[in-house]
Amino acid sequence: MKKRFAAVLITLTATAAVAATASVSFKGNGKLSWYDAAGYGACGTQLNAATELLAAVPAQYWTARNSNKDPLCKQWVLVSYKGKSIKVPVKDKCPGCAPNKLELSKAAFQQLDNVDVGIINGASWSIVSP
Predict the structure, then answer these.
(1) Three-class HEC string of the chain
(2) Would the CA dihedral through 49, 40, 86, 123 be positive or negative?
(3) Interatomic CA distance for residues 48 and 102, integer angstroms
(4) Which of 43, 44, 57, 125 could form a disulfide with 73 if both were Cys (CB 3.0 to 4.6 A apart)?
(5) Closest CA to 86 of 78, 74, 94
(6) Cα–chain-centroid distance for residue 108?
(7) Any residues with CB less than 8 A from the CB of 4 and at least 6 apart, and which?
(8) Over its length of 130 residues, how does the chain's per-residue pLDDT go in tens digits?
(9) Bridge partners, residue 31, by sequence
């Protein structure tokens, strides 16, 4: 007995366009973690998270199909924790981060707390202009 299969092609088109120069705005409260990877970040530039001050923003906040052209790549994050604040550029995406978790480079995290704590709870952040 021969089986027959019919192929169906469904095309979905996204119509949301975001200008590369647009500003992005959001605020978050929750967790901070750190990473120390080196290579190319989501914005298409080389980075070294062990020594460079930067942030990786949760994937849900990225809007451009090509992350190199996402408006977040032109923004910075103002992070506050226990009376300390730092302002770092967005250079990477955190695909595994929940919306309430921001990942900082090791160098940035060290300005807020010792990396041995691993994860900071109770931090706040907001996207700001450079």
Answers:
(1) CCCCCCCCCCCCCCCCCCCCCCCCCCEEEEEEEEECCEEECCCCCEEECCCCCCEEEEHHHCCCCCHHHCHHHHCEEEEEECCEEEEEEEEEEECCCCCCEEEEEHHHHCCCCCHHHCCEEEEEEEEECC
(2) negative
(3) 17
(4) 43
(5) 78
(6) 14
(7) none
(8) 444 433 332 222 222 233 333 445 567 789 999 999 999 999 999 999 999 999 999 999 999 999 999 999 999 999 999 999 999 999 999 999 999 999 999 999 999 999 999 999 999 999 999 8
(9) 101, 121
Structure tokens of 36?
């120390």
Nearest to 105 by CA among 39, 46, 35, 7: 35
Q: Enter the tokens of residue 46.
A: 């080389």
Q: Which residue type does 47 have?
A: L
In the chain, the amino acid numbered 112 is L
